[in-house]
């Protein structure tokens, strides 16, 4: 028997006896140095998978098989064989779940670790593997939810939201977002799951991010803004990439309520600064030409992010900004000729348009609550409210209405 593998088995047995979840997670990491050392020592035997059967029965089942699977995974990872590594990790996880289903929450650190490894290996392997990973991880979710014997403090239920986060990551990765409904229904159907606020912040942030994204894609923008805002303010300050992902969608949603990000915030995220600064500047100055040019320049990027339609609709914020500048130029008069808005639209880059089209755009701004007043068609005059002719965007009854 390999000396290193013998030591590994002893360490596994000790971690199991002492219910040491973090130690178990460490021992099963496929990228660890101890794993590479075992593989190096067993190199001859690993040419033939069946030869590893020699070690079956070395420790209690299913851990003898798990130990063998671990070595096979490490071997394939070392040789950069993604397909084989993923298949062996699938078997390892399935064996672990057999043990996990009859134990309490002390096993959660190990569960989290091997499921994360499974997802990472699936990522290297491709779409089909990612779907298979989601299917296997869903079994772990069921095992977490169904723990009704363990004391609350030691329940496997404390793994629910971490596992759900991994499943949703898989679905989003392969663009099978509709499958998320099943897992969310399962959460709703189990009222005995502790409230989300009782879970670690990292679990909360991941879950809220994906709920926010699902709401965004389903055009429930009020809920999307709520969930993404909570995700952002609870996100670890050092998790820069996660904050950037959240802000990518939170910034345009906040724009519709008149809350533009500060320059200081954007400077912390150069990628978002590059994307959003031209749009924000155009909105503030009413520069429709620049806004349209920016939409064209970033079209492919915005389409990939599912943001193009959102920012195309946000063009109306730019028109509102332009019309407000017309009002200021007219000494904030309550009566402004339609022709002034027509000229402003023409000069700002909307191209040649008939007076009727300009009048229609003013009427649209009034209808959607961006302006308060009415149009005297006979006199070709826009009559604005004497107080608050351009209400704050946040004060509009339905700030996300134009996104529907």
Description:
The protein is mostly helical. Helices cover 64% and strands 3% of the residues. A three-stranded antiparallel beta sheet has the order 1-3-2. The N and C termini lie far apart (66 Å). The model has no long low-confidence stretch (mean pLDDT 92).
Could you provide a short overview of the structure?
Helix content is 64%, strand content 3%. With 404 residues, the protein is an all-alpha fold.
What are the segments in which pLDDT stays under 50 over at least 5 consecutive residues?
none
Count of runs of 4 or more consecutive helical residues: 20
**Element-by-element helix/strand order:** HHHHHHHHHHHHHHHHHHEHHEE
Q: How is the biggest beta sheet arranged?
A: 3 strands, antiparallel
The level of helicity is: 55-70%
Sheet/helix structural class: mainly alpha
Write the layout of secondary structure elements.
Elements: H1 3-17, H2 21-27, H3 33-41, H4 63-78, H5 82-100, H6 108-125, H7 127-145, H8 160-173, H9 180-188, H10 201-217, H11 221-234, H12 240-255, H13 263-267, H14 270-285, H15 288-297, H16 299-304, H17 308-313, H18 315-329, E1 335-337, H19 338-350, H20 355-367, E2 373-376, E3 381-384
Antiparallel strand pairs: 1-3, 2-3
Helix pairs in contact: 1-2, 1-3, 2-6, 3-4, 4-5, 5-6, 5-7, 6-7, 6-8, 7-8, 8-10, 10-11, 11-12, 14-15, 14-18, 18-19, 19-20
